[in-house]
C-alpha cells in the first residue's frame, strides 16, 4: 500500500469492500459483499449521522500540545463544544501538563464562498502559532473549501516557513464518503505525511557500543499499540499490563500522543492493532515504508479474542510458552471472578450496536457470559470483520444491520426483537432508552472494556444496570418516539435500496 | 470578509435552525445536506446544551437527505423529494420543515421548488435556506422564525388586545430557555395577558398559528429575532418592542414597567405586581442577611457570554447581588449598531457601577482583557489584587477561573458541566435561583 505520496487519501468505497446500508443475516452480508452486491446500496429515507470530519476530530482532539484548525463555516467545529471539557480531563490522565482542546474555526462566510477561503486559513495558522506556540497545527478540511477549490496544502507549504509548529493537513471532507471510518485513513494519512519523519541519530547520543546494543535490544522488544479515541486510560493500562507480563515495551499511539511521539513509531519491532478497520491504512504504510511488520487480526475484547491477541503477539517474539502460562493463569482468575455474575446474566437477550469490529467482538463476549445475542447493528461494514463474523456462534440466524445511526431502523428492530437489554455507543443509547430498555453504554473513554479486566468490568456493570432499570422503564411509559405506529409493522430494512 | 474565530460559542445558521425546530412541538425538521451536518449539530446541542438530549425528533432521529459526491455533481433535488416523501410516511409530526446545509446551496438545488410541489398537494411542508456559511446559530433561529411568521402564522384582522407574543430567548444557545420562557410568561400573565412563546411549557403549534392576533410582540433581546419581528410587523401588522433579558428584582421591575407601558397597563396595576413580587423576592433574600455579611460574599466578577446574557448577568451582579462586575466580554458576532445598542444596557445601574465591556469572539482573549483591565502585581508588597473573584461564563471559562483562583458558575453556552432541565434564571424567580447557585459555589467546600 502506498498512497502517501498523494496529497489526498482515497475514500473507503474505493479501497475496501465497504458499505453502510444492509439488513439481513451476518453470513449473507459477507457473501454478498464478496460478490460485490453491496457496492450500490443506499437508503431512500435517512437520518442524521456523523461524517468523516466529525470522527477525524474525535481522534485529532486527543493530540497533546496541538491546535486544530477547522477550515470551513463556523458550524463544522461544533461537536468540539461538547468535547472540550472532558477532553482536557482525558488528556491529563496521560499528560498532567496537557492544556486541553484548542481549536480555531476559519469561519467561512458568503464572501469566502465566492472569493475563496485561503486567506482565512493563512491568518488562522499564523494566529495559532503566535497565540499558543503549539508543537503541531492540524488543519482539518471541510466540504465548503473542497468545493470552492481552496488549496490547503499550498497554503500550508507556504506558511510552514513562518511557523515552528509542524502543520498537518487532514483531508476529511464529509461529502466525499458514506463511510465515516474513512476518517481513520484521513487522519493517518496526515500523520504519515507530516509527523513521521525519522531522522537517523537525531536526539539520541550513543556513547558506547553497549548502549547502542541496549537500544537495539529495547527496540527489538518494543511494540506500538495503536489505541482508539473511544477507549479509556484504564483499557490502556490493562493492555500494557498484559504485554509487560511478556516483558515487552509499549508505545501507545495515536490518540493522546504528543506530535513528537509519532517519530517513535518507527522505533518498534511490531505494530499491534486493536481494531483492524481503524489501523490497516497506518500499519500497511509503516510496513511498506519502514519495514515494520504488524498484527491486525483481532481485538482484545472478550476472553477468546484477548487470548488470541496475546498469543499472536507472543508468537512474533517466540514467547508462546510464557504467553500460554499467562493466559491460563488469567483465564482461571477471571473465571472465578465471573462466577457470581453468570447466574444473573444467563439467557438475557441483547441487541448490540456500534463499530463493526467491536460489535461482533462484544457479541462473542456476551455469549461467553451466557447472554443471548439477538441482533447486531454496525456503523459500517468492510472485510475486516469477516473472520470475526464467520467465527461467531449463531451467526447464521442473528440479524445484522449495517447503519451509521439510522435510529428508525433501530426502533423497528427493538420493537420486533424485544431485547431485554441494549448495548450501544453514544448517540444510539438515548433513542433505545425511550423504548424502556435497560442500556449498557460501551465504547467510552470512561469505561473499562478491553482485556480480561474489561470482561469482568462489563459483567459487573451489566449486573448493576439490570438490578434497577426504573429510570428507563419510566421513560418508556411516558415518552414516545417520533415514528408512526405503522412503521413498526414494516420490514425494518424497507428503506434500504440494494441499488444496481 | 469574515475573521477566523478561536473557540466560537455558536455553530452555523443550520444549527440554530435545527435547534429551533427541535424544540417546536411536533415539528419534524428535515436537513437537506451532507451526512455529518446533523450529527455534528446534535453533539453540540446535547453535550454543550446542559444535556438537552435529542428531543422528540433530533439526534440520530433527525431526518437528513445525506447527500454525497454523486448528488454534489448531479444535483440533490431528486434525493430531497424522495426524502420528503418517505419522511411523511415514517415520521409522525404536524409540520415538516426542510432546512438546507452549505453544499446544496452551493450547487444551487431549487429546494423551495421541490418543497412547493408538496405544499401544492396540501402537505404541511415548509423550507428555509439556512446554509451554514450564512451566519451563526442566532441567524438560524431568526431565519426559521421569519419563515414561520411568513408562511405558517395565519393572517387575521382580528386582534386580541390581551394577547402578546414573546421571543428572543434562543433555544439551546440559552441553555435555560424553557425555564426562562415560563418565568417571563408567568410575569405577563400577572399583568393580565395571554402569551404565546411557541416553545414554552404546554404550548403547541396552534399558539404559533394564531400568533397573528396578538397586539404586541415582545422581543427579549437587542440582537436575536429582530428581523423576524420586522417580518411579523410587515405581514401581520403587529408592532414589537425590544427589552433586555431581565434577571433579578431590579431588572425585572424595569421589564414589567417597560412592557406594561407599551401595553398601556395602568401604572397602579404594574406597581401592585412589582410590589408583590418584590415582597416575595426579599422574603427569601432576607435569609442571606447573615450569610452574606458574616462571610463577606461580595466578589469582583467577570462575565462572559452572548448579547442576551452578558448584560443581564452583569446588571444582576451589580444591582441585585451588590457585586463588582469589573469586566464583561460579549462573544457574539455583532455590527457597530448592535454594539452601540448593547453598550447602553450597561449604563444607569442603580448601584452606580459601570462595568468595562469588550466585544470579542475569541475565547483565549478573555484572560488578556482581564490583564489589560486590572493592573498586575509589579512586585509590590501591598498589591490590590483581583481577589476575591468570581467568573460567570460558559464551560470554556472553567480554566480561566482556575487560573484566577476564582469561584465559577457556567451559565452561558456552551454548558457541558451542568445538567439543566426546568431551571430559569430570568425574572424574580430566576434571580433567586442564580443567587442560590452562585453562593452555593462559594460555600460548596464546607
Written overview of the protein:
The complex is a heterodimer of chains A (500) and B (446). Chain A has three domains: 50-194, Nitrogenase molybdenum iron protein domain (Rossmann fold), CATH 3.40.50.1980; 209-323, Nitrogenase molybdenum iron protein domain (Rossmann fold), CATH 3.40.50.1980; 338-497, Nitrogenase molybdenum iron protein domain (Rossmann fold), CATH 3.40.50. In chain A, helix 3 crosses helix 9 (182-194), helix 9 packs parallel to helix 12 and helix 14 runs parallel beside helix 19 (451-467). Chain A is built from 20 helices and 16 strands. In chain A, helix 4 links the parallel strand 3 (66-71) and strand 4. In chain A, the strands form four sheets. Chain A has a six-stranded mixed beta sheet with strand order 1-13-12-11-14-15, with helices on both faces. In chain A, strands 4-3-5-6 form a four-stranded parallel beta sheet, sandwiched between helices. A four-stranded parallel beta sheet of chain A has the order 8-7-9-10, sandwiched between helices. Chain A is of the alpha/beta class and 500 residues long. Chain B is α/β, with parallel strands linked by helices. Chain B has three domains: 13-151, Rossmann fold, CATH 3.40.50.1980; 163-279, Rossmann fold (3-Layer(aba) Sandwich); 284-443, 3-Layer(aba) Sandwich (Rossmann fold), CATH 3.40.50. Chain B contains 18 helices and 13 strands. Chain B has helices spanning 13-22, 35-47, 69-74, 77-90, 102-106, 111-120, 137-151, 177-190, 205-209, 226-236, 248-262, 267-285, 288-294, 309-320, 336-344, 365-373, 397-404, 427-443; strands at residues 5-6, 27-32, 95-100, 125-128, 163-167, 194-196, 216-219, 240-242, 300-305, 324-330, 356-359, 389-393, 407-410. Chain B has a five-stranded parallel beta sheet with strand order 11-10-9-12-13, sandwiched between helices. A four-stranded parallel beta sheet of chain B has the order 6-5-7-8, with helices on both faces. In chain B, helix 7 (137-151) packs parallel to helix 10, helix 8 (177-190) crosses helix 18 and helix 11 (248-262) packs antiparallel against helix 18 (427-443). The longest helix of chain B is centred in the middle third of the chain and has 19 residues, at 267-285. Chain B is globular, with a radius of gyration of 23 Å. The N and C termini of chain B lie far apart (51 Å). The interface between A and B is large, with 76 and 76 residues. Strand 4 of chain A pairs antiparallel with strand 1 (5-6) of chain B, so a sheet runs across the interface.
Amino acid at each position: 500500500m502506498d498512497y502517501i505520496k498523494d496529497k489526498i487519501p482515497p475514500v473507503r468505497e474505493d479501497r475496501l469492500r465497504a458499505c453502510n446500508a444492509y439488513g439481513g443475516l451476518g453470513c449473507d452480508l459477507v457473501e454478498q459483499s464478496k460478490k460485490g452486491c453491496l457496492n450500490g446500496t443506499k437508503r431512500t429515507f435517512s437520518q442524521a449521522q456523523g461524517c468523516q470530519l466529525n470522527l477525524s476530530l474525535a481522534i485529532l482532539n486527543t493530540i497533546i500540545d496541538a491546535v486544530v484548525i477547522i477550515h470551513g463555516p463556523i458550524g463544522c467545529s461544533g461537536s468540539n463544544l461538547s468535547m472540550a471539557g472532558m477532553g482536557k480531563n482525558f488528556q491529563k490522565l496521560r499528560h498532567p501538563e496537557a492544556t486541553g482542546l484548542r481549536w480555531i474555526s476559519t469561519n467561512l462566510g458568503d464572501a469566502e464562498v465566492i472569493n475563496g477561503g485561503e486567506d482565512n486559513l493563512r491568518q488562522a495558522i499564523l494566529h495559532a502559532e503566535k497565540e499558543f506556540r503549539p508543537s503541531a497545527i492540524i488543519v482539518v478540511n471541510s466540504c465548503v473549501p473542497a468545493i470552492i477549490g481552496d488549496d490547503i496544502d499550498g497554503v500550508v507549504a507556504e506558511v510552514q516557513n513562518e511557523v515552528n509548529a509542524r502543520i498537518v493537513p487532514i483531508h476529511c471532507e464529509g461529502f466525499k464518503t458514506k463511510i465515516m471510518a474513512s476518517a481513520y485513513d484521513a487522519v493517518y494519512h496526515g500523520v504519515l505525511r507530516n509527523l513521521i519523519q525519522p531522522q537517523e541519530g537525531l536526539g539520541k547520543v550513543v556513547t558506547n557500543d553497549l548502549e547502542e546494543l541496549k537500544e537495539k535490544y529495547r527496540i527489538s522488544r518494543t511494540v506500538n499499540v495503536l489505541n482508539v479515541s473511544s477507549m479509556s486510560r484504564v483499557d490502556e493500562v490493562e493492555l500494557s499490563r498484559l504485554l509487560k507480563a511478556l516483558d515487552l515495551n509499549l508505545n501507545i499511539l495515536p490518540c493522546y500522543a504528543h506530535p513528537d511521539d509519532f517519530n517513535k513509531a518507527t522505533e518498534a519491532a511490531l505494530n499491534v492493532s486493536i481494531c483492524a478497520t481503524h489501523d490497516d491504512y497506518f500499519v500497511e504504510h509503516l510496513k511498506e515504508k519502514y519495514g515494520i511488520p504488524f498484527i491486525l487480526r483481532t481485538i482484545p475484547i472478550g476472553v477468546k479474542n484477548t487470548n488470541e491477541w496475546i498469543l499472536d503477539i507472543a508468537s512474533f517474539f517466540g514467547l508462546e510458552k510464557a504467553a500460554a502460562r499467562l493466559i491460563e493463569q488469567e483465564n482461571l482468575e477471571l473465571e472465578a471472578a465471573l462466577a457470581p455474575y453468570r447466574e444473573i446474566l444467563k439467557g438475557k437477550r441483547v441487541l448490540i450496536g456500534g463499530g463493526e469490529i467491536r460489535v461482533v467482538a462484544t457479541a462473542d463476549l456476551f455469549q461467553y457470559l451466557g447472554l443471548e445475542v439477538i441482533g447486531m447493528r454496525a456503523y459500517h461494514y468492510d472485510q475486516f470483520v469477516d473472520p470475526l463474523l464467520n467465527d461467531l456462534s449463531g451467526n447464521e440466524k442473528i440479524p445484522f444491520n449495517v447503519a451509521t445511526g439510522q435510529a428508525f431502523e433501530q426502533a423497528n428492530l427493538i420493537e420486533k426483537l424485544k431485547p431485554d437489554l441494549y448495548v450501544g455507543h453514544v448517540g444510539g443509547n438515548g433513542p433505545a432508552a425511550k423504548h424502556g430498555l435497560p442500556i449498557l453504554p460501551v465504547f467510552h473513554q470512561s469505561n473499562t472494556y478491553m482485556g480480561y479486566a474489561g470482561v469482568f468490568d462489563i459483567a459487573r456493570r451489566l449486573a448493576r444496570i439490570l438490578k434497577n432499570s426504573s429510570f428507563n422503564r419510566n421513560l418508556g411509559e411516558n415518552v414516545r418516539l417520533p415514528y408512526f405506529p405503522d412503521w413498526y409493522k414494516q420490514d425494518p430494512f424497507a428503506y434500504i435500496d440494494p441499488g444496481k | 470578509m469574515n475573521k477566523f474565530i478561536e473557540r466560537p460559542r455558536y455553530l452555523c445558521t443550520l444549527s440554530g435552525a435545527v435547534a429551533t425546530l427541535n424544540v417546536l412541538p411536533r415539528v419534524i425538521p428535515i436537513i437537506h445536506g451532507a451526512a455529518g451536518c446533523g450529527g455534528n449539530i446534535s453533539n453540540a446541542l446535547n453535550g454543550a446544551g446542559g444535556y438537552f438530549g435529542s428531543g422528540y425528533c433530533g439526534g440520530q432521529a433527525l431526518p437528513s437527505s445525506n447527500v454525497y459526491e454523486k448528488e454534489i455533481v448531479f444535483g440533490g433535488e431528486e434525493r430531497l423529494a424522495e426524502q420528503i416523501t418517505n419522511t411523511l410516511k415514517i415520521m409522525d409530526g404536524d409540520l415538516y420543515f426542510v432546512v438546507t446545509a452549505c453544499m446544496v446551496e452551493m450547487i444551487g438545488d431549487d429546494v423551495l421548488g421541490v418543497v412547493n410541489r408538496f405544499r401544492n398537494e396540501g402537505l404541511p411542508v415548509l423550507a428555509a435556506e439556512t446554509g451554514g456559511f450564512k451566519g451563526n446559530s442566532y441567524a438560524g433561529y431568526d431565519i426559521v422564525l421569519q419563515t414561520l411568521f411568513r408562511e405558517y402564522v395565519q393572517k387575521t384582522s382580528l386582534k386580541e388586545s390581551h394577547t402578546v407574543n414573546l421571543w428572543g430567548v434562543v433555544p439551546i444557545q440559552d441553555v435555560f430557555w424553557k425555564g426562562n420562557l415560563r418565568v417571563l410568561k408567568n410575569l405577563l400573565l400577572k399583568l393580565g395577558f395571554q402569551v404565546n412563546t411557541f416553545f414554552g411549557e404546554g404550548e403547541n403549534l396552534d399558539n404559533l398559528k394564531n400568533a397573528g392576533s396578538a397586539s404586541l410582540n415582545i422581543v427579549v433581546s437587542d440582537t436575536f429575532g429582530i428581523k423576524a419581528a420586522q417580518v411579523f410587523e410587515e405581514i401581520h401588522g403587529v408592532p414589537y418592542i425590544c427589552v433586555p433579558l431581565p434577571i433579578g428584582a431590579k431588572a425585572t421591575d424595569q421589564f414589567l414597567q417597560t412592557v406594561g407601558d407599551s401595553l398601556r397597563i395602568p401604572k397602579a396595576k404594574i406597581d401592585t405586581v412589582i410590589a408583590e413580587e418584590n415582597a416575595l423576592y426579599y422574603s427569601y433574600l432576607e435569609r442571606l442577611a447573615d450569610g452574606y455579611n458574616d462571610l463577606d460574599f461580595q466578589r469582583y466578577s467577570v462575565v462572559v457570554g452572548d448579547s442576551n446574557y452578558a448584560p443581564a448577568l452583569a446588571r444582576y451582579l451589580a444591582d441585585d447581588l451588590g457585586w463588582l462586575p469589573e469586566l464583561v466580554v460579549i462573544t457574539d458576532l455583532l455590527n457597530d449598531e448592535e454594539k452601540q445598542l448593547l453598550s447602553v444596557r450597561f449604563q444607569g445601574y442603580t448601584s452606580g457601577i459601570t462595568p468595562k465591556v469588550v466585544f470579542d469572539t475569541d475565547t483565549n482573549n478573555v484572560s488578556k482583557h482581564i490583564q489589560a483591565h486590572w493592573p498586575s502585581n509589579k512586585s509590590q508588597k501591598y498589591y490590590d489584587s483581583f481577589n476575591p473573584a468570581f467568573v460567570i461564563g460558559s464551560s470554556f471559562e472553567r480554566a480561566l477561573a482556575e487560573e484566577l483562583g476564582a469561584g465559577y458558575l457556567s451559565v452561558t453556552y456552551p454548558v457541558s458541566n451542568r445538567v439543566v432541565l426546568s431551571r430559569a434564571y430570568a425574572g424574580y424567580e430566576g434571580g433567586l435561583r442564580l443567587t442560590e447557585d452562585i453562593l452555593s459555589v462559594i460555600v460548596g467546600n464546607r
